[in-house]
Amino acid sequence: MKMKDDTVVQALKVTIAAVNTTKDLVPIDLAKGILGTIANILNIVQSVIENKSDFQVIINMCDAIRGVLEEATEGATEDDLRGSVGKALSKLNVSVNHVNSEIASRKEGNFLHRVFSVTIDRDKIAGWEKDLDRALMLFNTGAIAGIGIGIKKLALGLEGNINRINFLKYRPTVPPSRPSMFYGRDALVAELTDLVINDEHIALIGPGGMGKSSLSKAILNEPLITEKFSDRRFFVTYDGLDPATITFEAFVTRFATALGTELAGSDPVRQLSTFLRSARALVVLDNAETFEEASGSSALEKIPPAIADIADIPGVILILTSRSRRNSPQRSMDNEGSSRSDAEEEIKDLLKELEFHPLSINLLANAAQQNNWSPHMLLKRWNHLHSKVLEHGRGKLQSLSFTMQLSLSSPSIRDLGEDGRRTLAIIAFLPQGLNADLASVLLPSLPQVDAICDVLCIQSLVYRQNNFIKMLAPIRHYVQDSALSPIDTTSLRDICDFYDHTVEEWSEEQDHHHADIIISDHLNIEHIVAFNLARVSDATNQIYDVCWQFLWCLLCHLPRPTTLSTAIFDIVENPSTRTLKAHCLYYLGALYGALCQVGEKQKALRAAETLYIAASVHEGVAWCVTGRANLYTCQGRFIEAKKVLEDLQGSDSWDYLNEGEKAHVWYLLGRAQMHTLAAPVDELFVKSMEDRDWGLRSHIAHWVAKFYSERDIVPVKMHLEDLLQRGDMYDRQSALHVLAEVAFCEDRLSEAMDILQSIIEMKGQFLSSVDWYTVFKGVVASQQGNYDLARELIHKTSRPSEFALHSTDIFLHRSYASARVELTAEEYDRAESYFTATVEGCDVQSELMFKAFSVRGLGEIAFARGNFALAEQRFAEAQFLCTDMGVSPRRLYSCFPISALPERFEGWLLFLDGRSPFEKAM
């Protein structure tokens, strides 16, 4: 506990100093006053509070406020405070003063003890944390609305506009500890630490095994570094990724994982930048040669600019480690520190022969220890090996080659026979290493594999991490480039057979056992699939089947970017591969959809559809068309959805579809027509009502359409309550959703809240659905006039989750709902910033529906402010979006009653009617 308190005391000192420095620099008096109040809060905690460790979050928040104020007021003048930034500063000032008064009163109220110390209840501290949390979120909201007045724009990404304090809510990652074996580099560590403290980026470039990663880990754990960066020290490793297949998505996903945060579906660099801008950060990009030498076009085009953008963020320092010498300065090495030793002279000579290469020294020392070699015997064996000619390889030293040869020729390794070398090649081949629990079943032809791995670990040729047996990058590269590689055909066949069988069994059984194996070994399986796809001449139907089945499993259990995209698109098309390639493309598109990469999903589905048509696989054509139509509908592109579905009905494939497949098409067509009223409401969903699979869903949708079109509530409610007793969870959710909307429209708001809560409880295991309906509860709460509860409910859905994929869909839903809440509360500045953020997100995702809602909302704000020219411009844009969607402007919210703006915002209807002040609009 004392160590923790000491850390907090040090953090207090650093933060107080930073706050006082910023206070002297900011040009706005009100900001100076806020910073002075923050400094006072921290001084009280430092001087008289006993339970200082309980204030760590408040210290972090105070430092975050300092950073935001510094950036928001850069280059500003007092004249700039007439707009929303001035209001935001004033509200922040009130909140900070409130917390300061509370803490000060606690100090003064305990007169007998205040000369010594005061202990404050943890619940009270939590309340202050919430107050500051709320104050910071509101300040960011208000400040964004003021970017037009000349103040430097806060670089808040799309996700940041809602999850403004994500840096306070993220799952902090623990940086790696200082290496246990790390000698002779104190001066170098001190020199590099000084560079980092002085805000200099560093590139550690050299051959594998030089200790670049160890050096960066040592720097991360230097006291001066921990003081300056606290828990904002991140180690992002790209070891194990293949430069030939790495994608930009894989790059940013691994980056975000190391930061402990999550990415929405769009503009990931902006989101990473938003996170990093929130406070000082030190980021190590380890094994940077992986993306420096990337051959994938997206990686080559996007990764270097992304790193450059991150490096330009004030307060963010990068350390890159790389074996690549491209564009690196030719600086001679100083061996004085690494060669300092008290060893006998012959060992000193051996160290010199090893070029003082740390990994080589470690390997050789382990070989000597395990084989009981005396220094004399070690030298003798080294000199014998040294007489052989070994060539340098790119990114390696000759000493490492010698050392590896000596280690492999030692008695301990020789006793393993050929199986030892096979095992090394296998571990080097697999990007995750060898799963220790599965080693014996993965490699039945190596019955002693567990014992072999134990020996290799003792020799330091491999190591264990998270139940995988791994290999350091320099050793892996040596093994891959040596006579040990490639992996022998027997072992490769064993591994492929096991992974293929696991994937195939999962696709048939959908069981947890096989799913757990795929999740734990997903990178290895992906590597095997890519490896097999690249061997075109040997490709079999099973290889393609495993590919799409693996993508299907990722979609269900671990949606993430995949490196298989290029390999799938590159599959050579011929009569025997068309259908199989189409399957792979279809599931690739489905995975893209789960990641909200809508453009990539459309591209993959179109390509799959073309192949299915060529192969006369008519049900596959229907899969692709319905997938695209569903995506169009979710984007509010109802005309396009209707067109692709009607085109399918007029195609050659239609006659070959079974009744269930046709019913699915009719059901989706009904959904599109329900929004556009392209058909009489009594005809909607009728064709699909008799189908076994789509019948009940169609009956529910039919009455939903009647409600949306006619608002005839009594029969709709009666039929939906009857249908509620039948069907699966999805059907019950659909019926309950509309019953909640019915209650909302009838102003039975408490009942609407109860129904939404029942959906949340029913969908508890599906966090994305829980978030979706929690946001709806926030909207209903605002309709009840409880704006604080509304904000709290919506803000809850922005919390990071270990399992939920926070998609762009939920972001748009959450952002628009927040805008509606603030508009209802007549907090127009905040509402404007949320509406603007929603429009930006819609532009990225080509989404029309939320964009139309938000542009109309911006028009109402302009109307409320008396800016009728701007209001007219906004309403005209919203009207144009309605035309694009195929929706009547007067029925913009017909299918989304909870999303509709309160009736008192009448600018939209005045505009549509051509009434004052919009007569000229007509």
From TrEMBL:
GO terms for biological process: cell surface receptor signaling pathway. Residues 180-309 form the Novel STAND NTPase domain. It holds the Pfam family nSTAND1. SUPFAM superfamilies: P-loop containing nucleoside triphosphate hydrolases. PANTHER family: HTH-TYPE TRANSCRIPTIONAL REGULATOR RV0890C-RELATED (PTHR47691:SF3), REGULATOR-RELATED (PTHR47691). This is Novel STAND NTPase 1 domain-containing protein. It comes from the Eukaryota. InterPro entries: Adaptor_Cbl_N_dom_sf, MLKL-like_MCAfunc, nSTAND1, P-loop_NTPase, TPR-like_helical_dom_sf.
